[in-house]
From TrEMBL:
It comes from the Bacteria. The lineage of its organism: Bacteria, Pseudomonadati, Myxococcota, Myxococcia, Myxococcales. PANTHER family: RAB9 EFFECTOR PROTEIN WITH KELCH MOTIFS (PTHR46647). This is IPT/TIG domain-containing protein. Keywords: Kelch repeat, Repeat.
């Protein structure tokens, strides 16, 4: 009977096989906690708590059964093996408990393992250490790539295990006493579940104690007083190292007495063997009266054959060594004179070599002599040098406008002053030709003004959006950007018909983003979008707009995720060309092409340097993709702004050498005016400033234009050429109002260089 009841109870268990047609009680999932099992973050242990669990219950993640261990009716454990990308997946948060019959608990998010600091060793550190300090941190859920934040700076860590890591703090971070805190952050941004917006998770702060260094820090106390003789057989020595007194930083040394043994006597603060007399059989030293002194000593003679008599050394061999008279200059070359020095700005003090050796001491002396530098040289570090050597003087001051039609230029190359190495440039004035005006230190051709449009509806203020012209539908298409007013990226789609902006309502759309890029594939009549950023989350997806909906593509080998890159469509070769961009503070210099199905990386023999914030446009008349400017990232805090011009012919990049060019800049915009066969450039910025200038590229040279009116100086905007209306269209961006004050705007401007009208 007991066995029958046991079988019956097994059939009615919560997750076990129930009576046919009966599901049994539903397992209840209440909470999930996680811990990392491996330092690479790919193996995670789940601790699941709830009720009505049995041995047959299984934990599921996104519909996939995980290896599950039954602990009790209220606890299960499971192991999840997956890539670290799951933490950046907004949909990777479904954890459920199921029975074999299908009884299913409610879903819970997959929480990221909690990053926690338990202890730090050493806990206390003296301020102003002599070198870096290595901390050992114990805690939970450490994985490779975990970063440490200390005093507003970030440091890499060395992860030894999931509960131990090390971080090295430079001495410069420990200069002041106090109780600074150390925090750890996850190596990847986290999204989904109850995380809210994507971001890195921080551990709680853990405080260190940085104490004032003692006044004796750095005092070695290793120079005790010299030993002395207390009597004929007793030496007074001092123990080293001694003890430092913090109040005075003075050292004290404990005395100790040493008694000479073995017939030795105290001489000069040490125990020595008394020298034998001159007629002793073991005398091999030099004669000093009637006493034979140590071999290393010097005296005026040697022991003679007559016993106690001494024989004097002569002038040619004036020194006695090892019982013989010697000349200490034997083998001495005297070919290492003192280093030359500067007596003044134009006079060098040299020393004649070889010098003269003193036979009694073996030391060399060198006669000084003075040398005057030539007229084009100065004395530096004991040598006459020409500071103009290697100086090209090819960087004259920037040209300026003396008035509306006169430019002040400077002759290059200039003249170098040998005494300072500084370059001087002669000024010259140049008058602008008829129909030109001096703008920013150069003569610019007068042109029709930019005209501001005032549509009834407009997109919201933004920067870092992308815009392109759809020639088949005769619409300018705008997507996304960053809304600074609400501190969030956008994913709205707008179209400009020459009169009004219209917001579209596609059934599907790319995720919100900024600093992405668009290009129009005129062969397939599709607008192509790639990449961009959502805060710290970089994207590598490809989408196409057909005028009604966005469609995501699934290429097998897309370029790596990036932002601030550029696209242009090469209509002759029917390829969208991508170059450069930024990924986690590093600029890229790679070239890719999109054929409508796949991305293919190209490896040209020559290419522009790695950069971000540059611009591309396709010159259909010359069948070349043109690149201008951008910024090359040397490090997170160091970058170089550029103004070089390159062209892509489908096989190689070729750098152009125009006679004139726009100044260095990034976050500017280009558009190709197919009616006039010119590439138009407007604005851009860098190093805390921005520009409102208009330039045109004809395939050989850049020419600055001087429109009577223009949009305000700005960056992070876009241009598109409306070929049906023969207008260059500009929208929004980040406008500089004054000095370093920037404001995001949503104004619309058009430029018709031919003076055409609607």
């Amino acid at each position: 009977m007991g066995l029958m009841w046991a079988l019956a109870l097994g059939l009615l268990s919560a997750c076990g096989p129930g009576v046919q047609g009966w599901m049994g009680p539903q397992p209840q999932l209440e909470a999930v906690t996680t811990t990392f099992e491996s330092v690479d973050g790919t193996t995670v242990r789940l601790q699941v708590s709830g009720s009505q669990f049995t041995h047959d219950c299984a934990v599921y993640w996104k519909g996939r059964a995980l290896p599950t261990t039954f602990v009790s009716a209220t606890e299960l454990t499971a192991v999840l093996s997956a890539t670290t990308d799951i933490w950046s997946d907004e949909d990777a948060d479904e954890i459920t408990v199921r029975s074999p019959e299908g009884a299913l608990s409610s879903a819970r998010p997959l929480p990221h393992p909690r990053l926690e600091i338990l202890s730090i060793s050493p806990k206390a550190i003296q301020a102003k250490p002599e070198g870096p300090v290595r901390l050992t941190v114990t805690g939970r859920n450490f994985v490779i790539g975990t970063q440490a934040s200390f005093e507003s700076s970030t440091y890499l860590t060395t992860v030894r295990s999931t509960d131990t890591l090390e971080v090295e703090l430079p001495a410069s971070a420990l200069q002041s006493p106090g109780t600074p805190s150390l925090q750890l952050s996850t190596p990847w941004p986290l999204c989904g579940g109850d995380m809210g917006p994507c971001g890195h998770i921080l551990s709680g702060p853990h405080f260190l104690w940085v104490d004032n260094p003692g006044q004796c820090q750095g005092v070695a106390c290793n120079q005790p007083p010299a030993s002395t003789c207390l009597d004929a057989t007793t030496v007074q020595q001092y123990v080293s190292p001694g003890t430092c007194a913090p109040s005075t930083t003075t050292c004290s040394y404990s005395p100790q007495r040493v008694t000479c043994t073995g017939g030795q006597q105290c001489s000069g603060g040490r125990c020595v063997t008394p020298p034998p007399t001159c007629n002793a059989s073991n005398c091999n030293g030099c004669c000093n009266g009637t006493t034979c002194v140590a071999v290393s000593s010097q005296s005026n003679g040697r022991c003679g054959s007559g016993g106690n008599s001494c024989e004097a050394c002569g002038s040619s061999e004036p020194v006695c060594q090892a019982g013989a008279c010697v000349n200490l200059c034997q083998g001495v070359t005297c070919d290492q004179p003192p280093a030359s020095t500067c007596l003044d700005a134009t006079t060098v003090q040299q020393y004649v070599s070889p010098g003269t050796c003193a036979p009694s001491t073996g030391t060399c002396s060198y006669s000084p002599q003075t040398v005057a530098c030539a007229s084009e040289s100065v004395c530096q570090a004991g040598a006459c040098v020409n500071l103009c050597q290697g100086v090209t003087c090819d960087q004259p001051p920037a040209s300026t406008c003396l008035d509306a039609t006169t430019v002040r230029q400077y002759v290059s190359p200039g003249t170098c002053a040998p005494s300072t190495g500084a370059c001087g440039y002669s000024p010259q004035t140049v008058g602008c030709a008829s129909g030109q005006t001096c703008v920013n230190g150069g003569c610019a051709t007068n042109s029709p003004p930019w005209r501001q449009a005032h549509p009834a509806t407009v997109p919201s203020v933004r920067r870092g959006y992308a815009m392109v012209y759809d020639s088949a539908r005769q619409r300018v298409v705008l997507f996304g950007g960053f809304d600074v007013q609400h501190n969030q990226p956008l994913n709205d789609t707008w179209e400009w018909d020459g009169t009004n902006w219209e917001q579209k309502a596609p059934a599907a759309a790319p995720r919100s983003r900024a600093y992405h890029a668009l290009a129009y594939d005129s062969t397939r009549q599709r607008v192509v979008l790639f990449g961009g950023s959502r805060g710290s989350d970089l994207l590598d997806d490809t989408w196409e707009w057909d005028g009604t909906d966005w469609v995501q593509k699934s290429p097998s080998n897309p370029p790596y995720a990036r932002e601030r890159h550029a696209l242009a469509y090469d209509s002759a070769r029917q390829r969208v060309v991508l170059f450069g961009g930024q990924r986690f503070g590093v600029s890229g210099g790679d070239t890719w092409e999109w054929d409508g199905t796949n991305w293919v990386q190209i490896f040209p023999a020559t290419a522009p340097s790695a950069r971000l914030g540059h611009a591309l446009a396709y010159d259909s008349a010359r069948q070349r993709v043109v690149l201008f400017g951008g910024s090359e990232m040397k490090s997170v805090s160091e970058y170089v702004v550029l103004n070089d011009t390159w062209e892509w012919d489908g096989t190689n990049w070729v750098q152009e050498a125009p006679a004139a060019a726009p100044g260095v800049r990034l976050s500017h915009a280009l558009a190709y005016d197919s009616a006039r066969q010119r590439i138009v450039l407007f604005g851009g910025g860098g190093k805390g400033s921005s520009w409102d200038d208009t330039w045109e590229w004809d395939g050989t040279n850049w020419e600055q234009k001087a429109p009577a009116a223009a949009p305000g100086a700005r960056m992070s905007h876009a241009l598109a050429y409306d070929s049906a209306r023969q207008r260059v269209v500009l929208f929004g961006g980040r406008e500089r109002k004054s000095g370093t004050v920037f404001v995001d705007v949503n104004d619309t401007w058009e430029w018709a260089p031919q003076g055409s009208s609607d």
